[in-house]
Amino acid sequence: MDTMRHLVVLLIWGFAFVGCERPTSVNVGAVFTFDSVIGRAAKPAMEAALADVNSDSNILNGTSFNLIFEDADCNVFLGSIETFQVLQQGVVAIIGPQSSGLAHMISEIANGLQVPLVSYAATDPTLSALQFPFFLRTTESDSNQMSAMADLIVHYDWKEVIVVYMDNDYGRNGVSYLDNELEKKMARVAHKVRLPTRYTDQDVRYSLNQSKLYGPRVYVVHVNPDRGMNIFNIAKELQMITLDYVWLATHWLSASLDSLPSINQSSFLSLQGIIGFRQYIPESSQKKAFVSRWKKMQSDGEASSELNAYGYYAYDTVWTIARAIDKVLEEYPNITFSFSEKLRDMEDSNLQLDKLKSFDGGKFLRKTLLQTNFTGLTGHIMFETNRSRVSGGYEVLNINNLKVNTVGYWSTTLGLSRTPAEYMNQTEISHLEPSLLDVVWPGGGTDRPRGWVIASDEKPLIIGVPNRTAFVDFVTEKNHTIVGYCIDVFKEARKLVPYDVPYRFQLFGDGVSNPSYDDLVKKVENHDFDAAVGDIAIVTNRTKLVDFTQPYIATGLVIVAPVSTSKASAWVFLKPFSVEMWCMTAASFVMIAIVIWILEHRVNNDFRGPPKRQLATMFLFSFSTLFKKNQEDTVSPLGRMVMVVWLFLLMVLTSSYTASLTSILTVQQLSSSITGIDSLITNNWPIGYQVGSFAQSYLKENLNINPSRLVSLRSPEAYETALRKGPSNGGVAAIVDELPYIELFLSERPEFGIVGQPFTKSGWGFAFQRDSQLAIDMSTAILKLSESGKLQELRSKWFCKKACPGDRKASSEPNQLRLINFWGLYLFCGAFALAALCLFLLRSLRQFMRYKKKQMESSSPAMPSTTCSQVIYNFFDFIDEKEEAIKKMFADRNIPHL
């Protein structure tokens, strides 16, 4: 209904005055604080714009543009009253206010009376909400500025900042946006220093002193420009403008500095090294002309302040409204107001609201304003959908030696850069890396400050240490001092961290039993402890809560169980070789026996005789090669060559066999009925674990072992007792614990041993709160300790007083020699024997063929031809003959012998 009513009023207003003359004047209100850094530049600038508009014949076509100024006097209450007074004078729009708090209040009034409110200085990003449809902003929103600030912080790799801000809408909402932007970039606001809207030096001094107790040394100051610089004077008194600190300021600082008539040297000393923002206003002929005009206005007494960015924005704001009114008057020449029905009901009240009327053309003027598109002193002016001006970006300023230097720029499209986006081509933009010119920091340093201190003497790190009651060599309290292997590693690593880290150990646990390490890690997550040092395993559920350093010792869950010495066996001599090795060796003896018999049969009388005798000789010869004295000697050259290779093979085999058998007979072999984690899970035996260890949760949650099978044990003595009793007498079948504990346990208990292999891989590290830089630096220090051998030295100091604990793993089978270890040697020997046999057969075949050929030439033609089987039979008869007989046969037939 409200929409229809407004539409009807608008149509009636439009039709009624079509063809009427334009009004002689149009009123626009301007509500802001005159006597302020912003106001002292804005008022003369608006007056100059007013004069320019009224003198320009191309705009408003004879209608006079009037500005009705009212002083808000930095007070929301007084500013609201002044706004009512302005509205009673028939204004079509209001310029201002500069205060975000007052803008929230006036926006509600503007909405009710449909009067556009156009601000050149209210930067609170929440003013862009749909709640304030008649609020427009011709300056940068703090949503852009806080995005720029977050980029700047991340550019220098700072993860935490402290924000100093005024506790009003402007301060709170700006800081909220900064917090959100930092969170997107994995950084955060660690502490907020809230100042009252009318803060005193004592308020600032107390708040800054309190902030020293926190770790970050990067300060972001977001306050009002009128008294903001005094914060830096107090910070300098407190020794906070030094090399350890970083100070960043939003654009209020540049507004204050630009407004100063002359440089105050003492004030600038407290600003040394500060980085700030200034709204970027591109250079142009219009801007240069206005700067010259401003100097003349100063000499004529029309301006009492230097020109700052808000003066430019105020000038353009007047022109923005004037252009929009001009377009409205072209379509609807008259300006009318209607009395609100809600206000009509209040005519009899004492509030005297009868003069307040709604602007009938307010919606159309608002629409026209949002279509603004022209170039002013501040650059191109357009509005985004949230009714804020399209961002022009910021200059990044650095104060050094009484000068304000521009070290870079920021824009929504490029982020940080050394050159404004308007001077870069598309190719340069696509290859742009975020960068700034060199910066001078507080204290005059050129190296980037670290930006944080992990602790101070007034507030040292509180480090939680497990109050162990078992395996105290790792960490314990002795004579009111925390000592142990883990403590020594921490202290040595801290020496390699390139800055001081004051700390204080605090025991965690009741001293009766080992504490829960999961609870210790949660204490770090909840900021009850700054860190935790001890034998803390790095496991998945803990890494989700805190940051761990590089592991300083490798570990994993292992199984320890009772073991016994292997019993003597009558067949122990077979253990050095595997079954396939024995089979291959036996086959090799047979092969060598056959090959040597074939090669020696024709030339060696020892290999001739009845078949039984030859068979016995063949195998006895082969096996006798194991000994130094042989009963028969080889005669043929091929046989001797094969024997050389064979004896080499035997030498390697016998020496390897002797070494393996000696090891088996002298080294103690351990055995257990449990062979690994699988057999432990399958059986229904009870399993022991150390109190406080993550082993319990791992066995229960990851391996699905029934909790009723798990038995908590408090000490190494309890381990020993439970293992000796066994599962049938109220003890346990095995204990699952981390390797370092088990090594220490086994060092003096040879009747127990590690069964199988570790079934988890992890390590011990020190726990720190999320995103702690000290965790990174301690990790680097631990790596240096490892590379230098210091970690091994510390381990030897604590655990090698008698002898270093080592793995004693139960083995279900001896370390046998397998065929794969010797297959190359077997292959060589077999190939050589086969080659020798082939050469012998080829030689014999050639002799036989020559002999048969000569025999056929000397025989009668009438003799019948021989069959293939007869030839083969004759060949075997031929090679069965002795070598001397063959020679004689060739001599009788005049056949040359090969």
UniProtKB/TrEMBL annotation:
Alphabetized UniProt keyword annotations: Glycoprotein, Ion channel, Ion transport, Ligand-gated ion channel, Membrane, Receptor, Signal, Transmembrane, Transmembrane helix, Transport
Xref: Pfam families: ANF_receptor, Lig_chan, Lig_chan-Glu_bd
Keyword Chloroplast in annotation: no
Transmembrane segments: 581-599, 639-659, 822-842
Residue ranges constituting the Ionotropic glutamate receptor C-terminal domain according to the UniProt record: 462-801
GO cellular component terms, A-Z: membrane
Membrane topology, from the record: Multi-pass membrane protein
Coiled coil regions, renumbered to chain: none
Alphabetical list of PROSITE patterns matching this protein: PROKAR_LIPOPROTEIN
A GO molecular function held by the record: G protein-coupled receptor activity
Record's signal peptide: 1-20
InterPro entries: ANF_lig-bd_rcpt (IPR001828), GABAb_receptor_plant_PBP1 (IPR044440), Glu/Gly-bd (IPR019594), GPCR_3 (IPR000337), Ionotropic_Glu_rcpt (IPR015683), Iontro_rcpt_C (IPR001320), Iontropic_Glu_rcpt_pln (IPR017103), Peripla_BP_I (IPR028082)
Protein location: Membrane
Family matches, as CDD domains: GluR_Plant (cd13686), PBP1_GABAb_receptor_plant (cd19990)
Similarity field: Belongs to the glutamate-gated ion channel (TC 1.A.10.1) family.
Protein name, as recorded: Glutamate receptor
